[in-house]
Amino acid sequence: MGIEEYGGGQSPRADVLVVTTNDVPGHQVQQVIGEVFGLTVRSRHLGSQIGAGLKSMIGGELRGLTKTLVETRNQAMERLVEQARARGANAVLAFRFDVTEAADAGTEVCAYGTAVIVSRTG
């Protein structure tokens, strides 16, 4: 499995900029649209659970679960961007992830932030 399968984030040509900061250098916030989020819940399949159980006895990375979490986070972020775009935003500030267990059924991942319209200064 290559490094690209363990990462996430945006492409350099994304039409909605997503940042973890409260502002974007060289840009000014023109309008605050409000909170946006992308949510997904994923269950673990039996193979991953058995593999994780065996791996926990000897230690090491749980690659199947890592890959599933990366895919889940990327899906939540895509949904956040879709919502921001639909509301007319071109940026999301203060981007964060929240991950919780969902009633022993799986993992809930919520990507959230503040949708805004920014423009370049100067």
Automatic annotation (TrEMBL):
<comment type="similarity">
    <text>Belongs to the UPF0145 family.</text>
</comment>
<protein>
    <recommendedName>
        <fullName>UPF0145 protein GCM10010274_42260</fullName>
    </recommendedName>
</protein>
<dbReference type="InterPro" id="IPR035439">
    <property type="entry name" value="UPF0145_dom_sf"/>
</dbReference>
<dbReference type="Pfam" id="PF01906">
    <property type="entry name" value="YbjQ_1"/>
</dbReference>
<dbReference type="InterPro" id="IPR002765">
    <property type="entry name" value="UPF0145_YbjQ-like"/>
</dbReference>
